[in-house]
C-alpha cells in the first residue's frame, strides 16, 4: 500500500508528525527521490535539535548515498546555516526541521544548489510521486557504487560570512537579550556574536526539541512575553527572539515593545540601498506596511510588490536582481546570501544600525513605522469564496477604493487598506489591515471582520 503523502508534502516543504505520518523508512525514500529529481551527484544535509532529527537526517543520507550520491553532513545547524552550506559548496541541500511546530513534528526543507528553493512547482511534487510509488513497489535499485557520507563543520564559516556582510567593528557597546526558545539560535548566536561589543543575555539557549519553556514561534505574542520582561528587567538596549530553526528573527525595543517586521524590513532596506550606492530593487509582499515602499523610494530604491510566501519572494528576487526582500512574517532575504532568508543577518543589521547612533531603538525605528496595523487575524469560515465575494460586493461599488487580486483581495483607500487571503491548507480567511491612525484601522478591521464572520 503506497504511503499517503497528501498531508505530509506541503506547498514549500515536507512536514508532519513522527512516527504517525512519516518515519526513517520514508526519510530514506525521500533521500533517493531528492537526488533523482535534482540530478545531484553530491548533496549537503543538516538538522535541528528535535529528538527525531538526527535519525531522519541519517536515513535521508543513506537513501541518497545508495543512489551513488556523495553526502556532506553538517549536523546540528540553523536553516540559514544549511542555506549557507548549499550556497558556499554549490550543492543541493536538505534541512531537517519543523521550524516552530510542536515537538512531535518534523520536516524537510529542500533546496537546489545555491540555496534555490524546491517547492511544489519546482520538484517537490515529483519527489512526492516517487516516494509514494516506492513505498508501494519497494525501494529503487541501488547504484553500482554507493556514495560517501562525510561530516563537515560549517558554523565558523557561516558566522564569518555573515560578519563580512555587516560592519559591526565600530558600534557602541549594546546590551542585548536573545531568546532562542531552546531552538537553533542557541547554537548559532554564541559563534556569530563572538568578539562583538555586546553584553549578551542568553535566554533558553539549551538545545531542547521538546520546547520546555514556550513554543519557538515568536509570531505569537504569548511567546515574546518572557523576552519583553527580561529586556525591561535588564535595562537592555533591545531583545531578539528566534524561531525554532532560527531562520526568522523578531525584535523588541528597549521598552519591551515589539518592533514590526515591516519596520525592520524598511530599516534593513535603507541600509542595503546605502551599501549599493542608493540604487537597487527591494522586494516586499503585499501585506507589509505602506512604510516599506515609501522608505525604499526615499532611499533611491525601487520597491516591487509580490504575493505572500518565500517561493514568490525568491523567484522575484532572482528575476529582478533585487538586493533585499522582507515579509511581514519576519523572513528577510538577501542577494548576498543566495537570495535565501536569514534572520541572523537581519539581526546583525539591526545591531549595526542601533550601535551606529546614540538614540534608543524605539526612536530609531519610529521613522520606519508610520502607520497602524492590525496584525494578521484568522477567521474560520465555511466557504472562503462566498465570504470573499461578499467583501467584493460591499466595497466594489465604492468610488474611493481600488481592488487588487494579486493574492486574495486587497482593497485600498486614501487612508487605509486591507487584504483578505484564503489559507491553502485550512478553512481560514486571513485579514491584514492598516490605516493612518488607530481609530480608522479599528473601524476598517471590525467592518471587514463583520462580513467575514457573518
Automatic annotation (TrEMBL):
Its cofactor is Mg(2+). The keyword NADP does not apply. Pfam families: PGM_PMM_I, PGM_PMM_II, PGM_PMM_III, PGM_PMM_IV. GO terms for biological process: carbohydrate metabolic process. SUPFAM superfamilies: Phosphoglucomutase, C-terminal domain, Phosphoglucomutase, first 3 domains. Keywords: Isomerase, Magnesium, Metal-binding, Phosphoprotein. Residues 7-134, 157-256, 263-371 form the Alpha-D-phosphohexomutase alpha/beta/alpha domain. Coiled coil: none annotated. CDD domains: PMM_PGM. Residues 376-449 form the Alpha-D-phosphohexomutase C-terminal domain. GO terms for molecular function: intramolecular phosphotransferase activity; metal ion binding. Belongs to the phosphohexose mutase family. This is Phosphomannomutase. It comes from Streptomyces davaonensis (strain DSM 101723 / JCM 4913 / KCC S-0913 / 768). The lineage of its organism: Bacteria, Bacillati, Actinomycetota, Actinomycetes, Kitasatosporales.
Amino acid at each position: 500500500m503506497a504511503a499517503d503523502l497528501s498531508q505530509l508534502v506541503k506547498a514549500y516543504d515536507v512536514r508532519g508528525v513522527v512516527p504517525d505520518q512519516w518515519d526513517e523508512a520514508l526519510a530514506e525514500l525521500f533521500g533517493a527521490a531528492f537526488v533523482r529529481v535534482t540530478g545531484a551527484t553530491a548533496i549537503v544535509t543538516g538538522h535541528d535539535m528535535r529528538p527525531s532529527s538526527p535519525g531522519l537526517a541519517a536515513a535521508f543520507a543513506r537513501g541518497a548515498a545508495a543512489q551513488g550520491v556523495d553526502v556532506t553532513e553538517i549536523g546540528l545547524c540553523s536553516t540559514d546555516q544549511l542555506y549557507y552550506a548549499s550556497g558556499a559548496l554549490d550543492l543541493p541541500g536538505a534541512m531537517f526541521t519543523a521550524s516552530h511546530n510542536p515537538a512531535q513534528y518534523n520536516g524537510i526543507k529542500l533546496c537546489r544548489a545555491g540555496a534555490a528553493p524546491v517547492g511544489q512547482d519546482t520538484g517537490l511534487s515529483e519527489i512526492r510521486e516517487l516516494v509514494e510509488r516506492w513505498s508501494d513497489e519497494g525501494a529503487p535499485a541501488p547504484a553500482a557504487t554507493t556514495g560517501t557520507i562525510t561530516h563537515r563543520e560549517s558554523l565558523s564559516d557561516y558566522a564569518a560570512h555573515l560578519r563580512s556582510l555587516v560592519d559591526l567593528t565600530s558600534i557602541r557597546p549594546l546590551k542585548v537579550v536573545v531568546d532562542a526558545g531552546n531552538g537553533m539560535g542557541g547554537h548559532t548566536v554564541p559563534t556569530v556574536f563572538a568578539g562583538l561589543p555586546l553584553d549578551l543575555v542568553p535566554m533558553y539557549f539549551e538545545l531542547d526539541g521538546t520546547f520546555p519553556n514556550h513554543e519557538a514561534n515568536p509570531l505569537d505574542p504569548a511567546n515574546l512575553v518572557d523576552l519583553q520582561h527580561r529586556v525591561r528587567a535588564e535595562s537592555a538596549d533591545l531583545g531578539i527572539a528566534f524561531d525554532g530553526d532560527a531562520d526568522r528573527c523578531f525584535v523588541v525595543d528597549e521598552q519591551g515593545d515589539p518592533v514590526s517586521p515591516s519596520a525592520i524590513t524598511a530599516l534593513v532596506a535603507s541600509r542595503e540601498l546605502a551599501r549599493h550606492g542608493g540604487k537597487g530593487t527591494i522586494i516586499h509582499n503585499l501585506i507589509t506596511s505602506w512604510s516599506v515602499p515609501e522608505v525604499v523610494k526615499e532611499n533611491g530604491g525601487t520597491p516591487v510588490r509580490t504575493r505572500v510566501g518565500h517561493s514568490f519572494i525568491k523567484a522575484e528576487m532572482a528575476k529582478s536582481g533585487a538586493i533585499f526582500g522582507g515579509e511581514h512574517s519576519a523572513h528577510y532575504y538577501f542577494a548576498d546570501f543566495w537570495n535565501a532568508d536569514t534572520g541572523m543577518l537581519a539581526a546583525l543589521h539591526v545591531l549595526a544600525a542601533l550601535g551606529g547612533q546614540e538614540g534608543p531603538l524605539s526612536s530609531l525605528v519610529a521613522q520606519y513605522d508610520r502607520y497602524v496595523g492590525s496584525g494578521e487575524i484568522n477567521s474560520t469560515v465555511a466557504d472562503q469564496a462566498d465570504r470573499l465575494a461578499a467583501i467584493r460586493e460591499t466595497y466594489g461599488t465604492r468610488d474611493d477604493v481600488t481592488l487588487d487580486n494579486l493574492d486574495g483581495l486587497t482593497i485600498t483607500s486614501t487612508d487605509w487598506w486591507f487584504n483578505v487571503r484564503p489559507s491553502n491548507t485550512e478553512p481560514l480567511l486571513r485579514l491584514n489591515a492598516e490605516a493612518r491612525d488607530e481609530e480608522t484601522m479599528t473601524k476598517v478591521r471590525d467592518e471587514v471582520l463583520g462580513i467575514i464572520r457573518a
